[in-house]
Specification:
This protein is α/β, with parallel strands linked by helices. It has two domains: about 140 residues, Rossmann fold, CATH 3.40.50; about 70 residues, no CATH class. Helix content is about 35%, strand content about 25%. The chain contains eight helices and ten strands. The strands form two sheets. Strands 6-7-8-3-9-10 form a six-stranded mixed sheet, with helices on both faces. Helix 5 packs parallel to helix 6 and helix 7 crosses helix 8. It is globular. The protein starts with a strand and ends in a 7-residue tail after the last helix. The structure holds adenosine-5'-diphosphate and magnesium ion.
């Protein structure tokens, strides 16, 4: 029996109207995401990945179709979620802990209740001992970990990540993938993860949504049947079958370079 969808996109499209003319970013987007599911979207630059994430978050209006989250239509910016963007946006004058606690302060939540959660998330992502450091004392990877903790501290049911490793080196990307996996396995939040890296998508997701170049369409949705925890250096043969299959879909639609 299929569980009821937590996020539902029905025939969603987005056309940006700019002075220079119209840009059809994406269209015919049909996607159901179950509660606690980890879904990755991969596609070439400009195919509307960020647009889809923003429409789910209510930060961009859709041009047609319907989007519901938790059974409710998304018609305004959603507050019951956490978002991680490509660049960690931290406040320089706040400590690591207080950057995570920013969510709690903005939402007027009880500091005493949430501080242990913030500390636990920092520990899960390898930042124990850095609670009182300032952002300028951290590496890019550490800063991005802080923004992941901040997105989760208020315990939202949904986590949206838009190329959260985009600005990081390969080794750091791999380490943070492992952090995200660890946090997700513990918290089981519904997660929508956008990337242009095929191995990262396969490593983390229950399902990978493969998109065509702009105007972005869903070409295929692939179930990733691999046990967790997953590790890049000890993946079964199936891992490269999945990545190979996604690569060949891109090749067929004329997308050659993805990484
Ligand atoms: N605010 C905007 N106004 C006009 N065009 C936009 C806007 N945002 C994105 N676009 C265009 O829509 C297309 C899809 O963008 P985006 O969703 O950012 O793609 P991706 O995240 O897959 O790289 C691109 O051609 C981009 O230039
Ligand atoms: Mg983008």
């Amino acid at each position: 029996m299929a569980a009821e969808a937590y996020i539902q996109l029905d025939d969603v499209s987005k056309v940006y109207r700019a002075k220079a003319g119209q840009v059809e970013a994406c269209g015919e987007i049909n996607l159901d995401i179950r509660e606690s599911e980890f879904v990755a979207i991969v596609g070439p630059s400009g195919c509307g990945k960020t647009t889809i994430l923003k429409m789910v978050a209510g930060l961009q209006p859709r041009s047609s179709g319907s989007i519901t989250v938790g059974g409710r239509s998304v018609d305004r910016p959603q507050t019951d979620l956490g978002i991680v963007f490509q660049d960690a946006i931290l406040l320089d004058w706040r400590s690591v802990l207080d950057n995570v606690m920013l969510q709690v302060d903005i939402r007027n939540l009880d500091r005493a209740t949430y501080e242990p959660i913030a500390r636990h998330l920092l520990e899960l992502t390898g930042l124990k001992g850095f609670e009182h450091h300032k952002p300028f004392e951290l590496s890019g990877g550490m800063r991005q970990r802080v923004s992941i903790c901040r997105a989760l501290v208020h315990d939202p049911p949904l986590l949206l990540m838009d190329e959260p490793f985009g600005a990081l080196d390969a080794l750091t990307r791999e380490q943070i993938s492992m952090d995200i996996q660890r946090v997700w396995m513990e918290k089981r939040k519904t997660a929508l993860f956008i990337t242009h890296s095929i191995p990262e998508a396969v490593l983390l997701a229950d399902r990978v949504v493969v998109m065509s170049p702009r105007p972005g369409r869903i070409v295929e949705i692939i179930d990733i049947d691999l046990p967790r925890p997953r590790k890049l250096d000890s993946m079964p043969e199936k891992f490269s079958e999945y990545t190979g299959r996604i690569r060949s879909i891109f090749k067929a639609s004329g997308v050659l370079a993805m990484d």
